[in-house]
Amino acid sequence: MPLVAHTELPTFRRLQEEGEEILTPERATHQSIRELHIGLLNIMPDAALEATERQFFRLVGACNQIAQFHVHPFTIDGLERGPEALAHIGKYYESFEQIKRDGLDALIISGANVTHDHLQEEDFWRPLTEVFEWAKENVTSVLCSCLATHALIQHCYGVERTRLPAKRWGVYSHKVVDRSHPLVAEINTRFDVPHSRFNEVFRSDMEKHGLKVLVASDQAGVHLAVSPDGFRIVFFQGHPEYDDISLLKEYKREVLRYYRAERDDYPPYPEHYFDEAAQRLLADYASHVQAARHGGRQLKAMPEEQIVGGLDITWRDSAKAVFNNWLGKVYQITNEDRRLPFMDGVDPHNPLGL
Ligand SMILES: CC(C)(COP(=O)(O)OP(=O)(O)OC[C@H]1O[C@@H](n2cnc3c(N)ncnc32)[C@H](O)[C@@H]1OP(=O)(O)O)[C@@H](O)C(=O)NCCC(=O)NCCSC(=O)CCC(=O)O
Ligand SMILES: N[C@@H](CCO)C(=O)O
């Protein structure tokens, strides 16, 4: 929630000139105070379905202790689901029809696993773009994570992602590129974000289509960009929502795939993630896995418990700060009626008046 300039104190004007959100007493008195409704379109595979819910719910919940948030999970057809996940979705998720009827102030679209060479061949492509087309007209801002970013950049601007020679996998240092943008105002100017992807949309392709790049890494590419209007679509290429253990879980999954001969090379470590003690444990474990695979022997469990305690989370504070900025801005411009995206007077082509 922003400051209210309730006196003539010059500091208010000074902060406002520096980009801080400051409400006039007039605006503050007339602001409608209500809860915010955020959709979570969860298209992650079954194994990560509930972990993904927890990650985004946690980020929304932890980013601001004053506002009230209602998060509405829903999903789409075209994803392979087992009976347990289907029961969970049937019992707890809302339908897209209901979401459309009631309206949303903001929408988060999760990452996904892909099985085809081109995203438009995925069974979820059409339902995903249907949700997006509705949101584009009716929701104040849509935040896309990883795969959703790739899919919607392709859908909106015709740019296909590029397959990388090796998976971009680990925790990378990033810098804020445009310090004046309200989404990254008042946050650390250098911070970590995990990435986990085989594909990339490059900065030059984004900028060619008018997207504004806000946070990028020399090693890992763009993490955060926004649509040409400055706010209506927020693209994350990294995973600021990840838990401390998420990359460990993915690493374990890859080790098991190696043991089952579903991949030929032993998986590398995610970069800048395991400390030396963890790497020693995992190197010993790798010798065991290789011997077990080639000798057809039973596999011992990975020593996860010994590793978890030493994992650091170095991205969460900045992730919360960006989410807080995002939802704060949504709140300032969304309509009192949650089915409508903007208050009167907000320009849909430049909603933040940048
Ligand atoms: C790696 C796995 C398979 C691990 O799941 P498993 O259930 O097998 O793990 P497990 O060792 O049995 O552990 C189970 C416990 O850990 C929790 N758990 C599982 N995965 C977790 C995760 N990623 N983060 C945090 N917690 C996690 C479970 O909820 C459960 O908790 P409780 O016991 O407490 O309930 C899963 O997380 C997964 O599929 N992740 C996929 C992530 C992914 O694909 N990300 C890429 C998006 S990338 C993208 O969108 C673009 C990709 C591209 O470039 O094409
Ligand atoms: N954007 C509204 C808050 C949401 O109803 C206002 O500032 O009054």
Can you describe this structure?
Its EC number is 2.3.1.46. With 354 residues, the protein is α/β, with parallel strands linked by helices. The chain has helices at residues 10-17, 25-30, 46-63, 83-92, 96-102, 125-138, 147-157, 203-208, 246-259, 276-295, 304-308, 316-333; strands at residues 3-4, 22-23, 36-41, 69-74, 106-109, 141-145, 162-176, 190-200, 212-217, 221-226, 233-236. Strand 9 and strand 10 form a beta hairpin. The radius of gyration is 22 Å and the shape is globular. The structure holds succinyl-coenzyme A and L-homoserine (HSE). L-homoserine binds next to helix 12.
Summarize the structure.
The chain is α/β, with parallel strands linked by helices and 354 residues long.
Binned strand content: 15-25%
Q: Determine the number of helices (DSSP H or I, runs of at least 4 residues).
A: 12
Radius of gyration: 22 Å
Q: Largest sheet at a glance?
A: 9 strands, mixed
Order of helices and strands: EHEHEHEHHEHEHEEHEEEHHHH
Descriptive tags:
354 residues, binds succinyl-coenzyme A, Class_I_gatase-like, alpha/beta, 19% strand, 11 strands, two-stranded parallel ribbon
Helix and strand arrangement:
Layout: E1 3-4, H1 10-17, E2 22-23, H2 25-30, E3 36-41, H3 46-63, E4 69-74, H4 83-92, H5 96-102, E5 106-109, H6 125-138, E6 141-145, H7 147-157, E7 162-176, E8 190-200, H8 203-208, E9 212-217, E10 221-226, E11 233-236, H9 246-259, H10 276-295, H11 304-308, H12 316-333
The structure holds succinyl-coenzyme A (SCA) and L-homoserine (HSE).
L-homoserine (HSE) binds at residues 31-32, 34, 331-334, 336, 343.
